[in-house]
Amino acid sequence: MSVIMILVPVAGCTGNQDEISLNEQIVELEGELSNLTTLNENLQSAINQANSNASDLSAVLDGANSEVGLLREAIEDLNSEKAALMNQSMALNMSNHDLKLQLASSEMNNTGLVESLDANEAELERLNSEIAVLNSEIADAFAEISSLEATISALQGALGNIVTDVIPKIGSCPLDNPGTELLIGIDDGSGIGEPDDGRLEGREVLTRFGGCPGTQGMVADLASGSDSTVSNIASMGGNLYFVADDGVHGRELWKSDGTVDGTGMLKDVCEDCPSFLGSDIGRIFASDTKIFFVARTIDEGRELWVSDGTEQGTNMVIDLFQIPNQFYDVTISYDGPEIFFAITKDQNPGFADTVIFSAFKGNTGQNEILGEELWISDGTPSGTYMISDVNPQTISIQTDTGPLCCYDSVGGVPMEPVMMGNEIFFTAENKVADLGRELYKTNLITTESSIVRDIRFGELSSGVTGLSVFDNRVYFSADSGSTGAELWATNGSFNGTVLVADIATEGGSSPANLTVFDGLMYFSASEDGSGRELWVTNGSYWGTELVRDIRPGTFDSNPRDLTVAGGTLFFTALSNETGRELWSLQAAGIEPELLSDIMDGTGGSGASRLFSHNGNLYFVADDGANGAEIWRSGGLQGSTELAFDINPAGSSHPRGFTVVGEKIYVLADDGSRGVGIWFLAENEDIHLSSD
Hints:
It contains 2 helices and 44 strands. A hairpin with a 2-residue loop joins strand 25 (465-470) and strand 26. The protein is elongated and about 135 Å long. The two termini are 29 Å apart. Residues 1-16 and 687-691 have low confidence and may be disordered.
């Protein structure tokens, strides 16, 4: 073990500032000593493993020698058996000779002598066959002995040539977590290695031990010490994809495998853009093997892009909007497509690796000016097409070459789509038919679309919002004009679109945060006498009820962030005693309970950004001492704790949770390097692997 001795000369009295500085140095050196001690322990463990490997090889060698001894004993037994058979064969040959002499000297044919002679010859043939078999077995045994002796020779050589090599592990680790690897192998020049150079490379390495220590750390310094303004993080295929500014290219698309060397700009989408502008990439959506995003270029403006994770496979899908926003006397208010969600194989195998988005198509060459409608794309131009045209083209426009008929400068402007089977349900406005914003559906296979029901008849909108799928129906909040915003459900038909429950007798209850848990639908709603609280429904009027009045009276507990993790429904709520804190519901029929009063008093910890991983809930909260950091809960009393404190001097404000493998990745600020990508792990990445 390495020992660092710290000698601190002290002369006279020092000021308070010097004492603080000295104490900080001592704490820092103690931390370095602790790290060195841990490294020493890891290396010692690796050396013990290497010794164990050598012991295993010795055991194999002993076993081979023992097997050779057994084979030699077997050969001796076979030779003895062979000698006995040879003696029997010689005796039979002598007997045959005597019988032939007797037969020759006899004056008359002696039938008995002939039969005895035939029997002896048959027995002799059998004995010769057995001797041949024994000869073959003896030859096989000698061949196996030769093979074992060659193996023994190789093992003896390996035991004599096994070496170890300790190397730093930097580029293949996160920035804050460089490690050390112990290599075990034979320095014989295999592969790219050089023989007897004291280093292990290529196929010379038999086993490597080590990893990237620590349970949290910044992945990479994307802008060399300045704020990279990283955002929009997503994961696909074991990699992270995000938007960052390295100070040179502007905000562009980046990729990372969680290590320093594996982090870099994937593509400069807008090469001609000034560095202060970049490609203006929006939120990234991941399917199984593709990511989709909207980005800007100088020539095409903001359009849909796709990437397979390679620079060559990152391209604009199609240029849909090819007209200016001011087209003759028509002003078009549009700033590119809006992506709603990507479809994975688990969600719908028939439409896996596609994306649902809204877009405006304008192409005067094709005499098309279509307003903003619902589209689907598989990432290719031919696989990109409109799946719903709510607002038809009915208006003519006067151009330099004459009237152009017909165009639509607005579109249905679809919002909040959800998928149920092969149908997409969404809200849209049909201004041509003087309908407000209502519920529509379209079929992914046939692209046939229609209004589900004009809930608020006429040009006024029913305010459909909060679409969520439960038990083969789509649930949502809507106002028929007589009940206020209440809970509705539909199976996709006119008659199957019904009011589930009129919760508030005056005004509307405005259901929100619709979340499926334990075979029921939970949501927040406002009732006349209880304020906004947690409600539940089984889809029927009689099965819709208040779960608990957490903040008694007309005050709102305002449940938010309903999230299912590890068989528990988590949410945050306000109470008079604690402020906004984390609550949980273990099962239907059981009252929810406060999990932890993280910040003492009535101020509340502001618990938010709930995220499920490995059966636990992760979330952001401020206990008043550590700032806004990442907490973890298993759902039971006493299981809620501070999990990761990224900024020890304040709040790191974590956001953008995503998972790759067993690690959580977040965007956070450690207080000194700006917002960056951090990894979080429950266990250190120290492991033994074989090449």
